[in-house]
Amino acid sequence: MRRTFFCIDGHTAGNPVRLVAGAAPLLKGASMSERRQDFLARFDWIRTGLCFEPRGHDMMSGGFLYPPTRKDTDIGILFIETSGCLPMCGHGTIGIVTFGLEHGLIQPAEPGLLRVEVPAGVIEIRYEQKGDKVTAVRITNVPSYVAAAGIVVDIEGIGTLSVDVAYGGNYYAIIEPQGDYRGLDDLGAARLVELSGRVRTAVREVFEPVHPLDPTIRGVSHVLWADAPKGDGADGRNAVFYGDKAIDRSPCGTGTSARLAHLAAQGRLSPGDRFVHESYIGSRFTGRVEATTSLGDLPAIIPSIEGSAIATGFNTIWIDDADRFWEGFQV
Ligand code: PYC
């Protein structure tokens, strides 16, 4: 049997986005969070087939558009990525919304504004369009908060680190320069990948964050190495690790949201403050602390992130069970 997926490929600030515009499976569930669980249980081969080698690579991510389950939203997004189906993905949303608008797959009721249902909740999008090009997308993201501070882990190859855990749509282990972590330029990408895997395992052994309103969102999935900015006009730099081998080429939307919550909790940012975040390759998102709020009993912020995406082409991909690697593979 062969299944054909019509995709629009591109990138947001350098990180890949594959919008799967055809052949989205029909999902069960009364919310995008429930549909995410259904997809993982019954259709995960689509994710691995489209994201893993030989059709994808270590950084591959993207998503499907769905009719939303809520009347107060315009569209739903289900994210796919090498590590699973993320509750929320910032660079993915910027790419999916850009390609969807540019190719007529999203028809907004009010130009410039969209409310989008994602597994992590409802986000608001404001975008700018010039002719047929979407030039900027700003996401007002889900409430973001610090789940733990000062978790001490001993990591082979870099020693003792104090790690904080913050949520911005996914849970991040955040590491500021300290001890033998002197900054990103001190560690090459290969070392970052190796150390990040160890950090994530060590943190998972001692702490499992659980989202106060949706217990299906749990556990540290990403590692964010924070650093001082490199370029003029930026406020910070990061390298975000996800999956098993990926360093985000973008400044990472949910990572930037988690970092904003982290800096706000430490009194280093206040509502209204902007924070220009540079990625490992020097691309940028503009973050902002929009407001303070609460999540369950916990203090939280509403962050926004702004960036842009570029479509690079159409890609019609087959998954054929005559292919030994129909489900994809990772090495
Ligand atoms: O932009 O939120 C993001 C993201 C998550 C994983 C990779 N990028």
Number of domains: 2
CATH architecture of the largest domain: Roll
Number of helices: 5
Strand content: 35-45%
Kindly report the average pLDDT value.
97
Write a brief structural summary:
The protein is α+β, with helices and mostly antiparallel strands.
Account of the 3D structure:
- By secondary structure, this protein is of the alpha+beta class.
- It folds into two domains: 2-137 and 310-320, Diaminopimelate Epimerase, Chain A, domain 1 (Roll); 145-307, Diaminopimelate Epimerase, Chain A, domain 1 (Roll).
- Helices cover 19% and strands 41% of the residues.
- The chain has a 17-stranded mixed sheet that branches.
- A hairpin with a 3-residue loop joins β12 and β13.
- It starts with a strand and ends in an 11-residue tail after the last strand.
- Pyrrole-2-carboxylate binds next to α3 and α5.
- Belongs to the proline racemase family.
Give a quick set of tags describing it.
331 residues; 17-stranded mixed beta sheet; single chain; 41% strand; alpha+beta; 4-hydroxyproline epimerase; binds pyrrole-2-carboxylate; Diaminopimelate Epimerase, Chain A, domain 1; 5 helices; 2 domains; globular
Sequence-ordered SSE layout with sheet pairings:
Blueprint: E1 2-12, E2 15-20, H1 32-42, H2 44-51, E3 61-66, E4 75-81, H3 90-102, E5 113-118, E6 121-130, E7 133-140, E8 145-155, E9 159-167, E10 171-175, H4 189-206, E11 220-227, E12 236-242, E13 246-247, H5 253-265, E14 274-278, E15 284-295, E16 298-307, E17 309-320
Parallel strand pairs: 2-3, 4-5, 10-11, 12-14
Antiparallel strand pairs: 1-2, 1-17, 3-4, 5-6, 6-7, 7-16, 8-9, 9-10, 11-12, 12-13, 14-15, 15-16
The chain binds pyrrole-2-carboxylate.
Pyrrole-2-carboxylate is lined by residues 15, 61, 86, 89-91, 242, 248, 250, 252-254.
InterPro entries: Pro_racemase_fam
Organism: Sphingomonas gellani
Family: Belongs to the proline racemase family.
